[in-house]
Amino acid sequence: MVIFPNCKINLGLTVDDKRTDGYHNISTVFLPIPLYDALEIIPSKSSINIQFTQSGKLVDGNSIDNLCVKAAQLLQDLFPEIPPIEIYLHKNIPMGAGLGGGSSDAAHTLLLMNQLFNLGLSKDKLIQLSLQLGSDCPFFIENKNCFATGRGEIMSPIEVNLNNNYILLINPSIHISTAWAFKEITPGSIRVPFKEILKEEPIKWRKALYNHFEEPVCQKFPEIKTLIDLMYQNGAEYAAMTGTGSTIYGIFKNPVQPFTSLPSHYFQFTFQVKN
Q1: How many Cβ atoms from other residues are within 10 Å of residue 96's Cβ?
Q2: What is the fold of 2-8+33-153?
Q3: 136 is an active site residue
Q4: Selected catalytic residue, list 8, 37, 91, 105
Q5: Tens digit of pLDDT for each residue in 167-200?
Q6: Residue 204 known to be catalytic
Q7: Are 99 and 9 within 8 A, CB to CB?
Q8: The architecture CATH gives domain 166-272
Q9: Catalytic: which of 21, 125, 136, 225?
Q10: H/E/C letters for each residue in 140-180?
Q11: Per residue in 58-95, pLDDT tens?
């Protein structure tokens, strides 16, 4: 059985406070993006519980640490009747890019195994399980425009009027350490009235919708600020960094093409929003 995990962007992101469990409470709006990995899971006759094969973009680390493997192991621990499986993951979404690709792969592993083995897990239970794998994972169980708080698992629907706008993503192949990024910001120092701002047109978001991590990341990696400026110079209504970076997105009223002036190793992707 095959599934295609998508990624996301953050429309604004604030870190509100640090929790007693060491995590942070955030506020953000998640928007699903039609850029996909490919994930296949099949039962295996092997004596090895989980066999994992990955292709496409390189993923750092050992396969045992891959979030797909951890998600599968989580379900096998809960349901010992699940047979050995083979997992095939083809990576197309850039890693360490603020797009949530790894989190999406993990969440979709839970969804796929729930369907493949008729586990009967509810959406709420899947969200609860996915939170053990990463703070972005619960969103990909919901996978709809939503306002998120807590670690990202408390979600409510939100209307984002971007229909027929165009979005361009640019990733400069810079890996941002999430741990480093959190050390660089002061929780609670930025507050954003997300629901009020997102009722407005994107051109009005410029001085109101913030990503808490954008300033320190741009200070360390000036080329990211250069990309934001490039978006505006080419007609973007709004441009910002997603997550802890390093991907930049621009929202345009008219069709936009990848910038040919950028280095060939930059990843670019453009699409039209269809609500």
Answers
A1: 21
A2: Ribosomal Protein S5; domain 2 (3.30.230)
A3: yes
A4: 8
A5: 999 999 998 888 999 999 999 999 999 999 999 9
A6: no
A7: yes
A8: 2-Layer Sandwich (3.30)
A9: 136
A10: HHHCCCEEEECCCCEEEECCCCCCCCEEEEEECCCCCCHHH
A11: 776 677 789 999 999 999 999 999 999 999 999 999 98
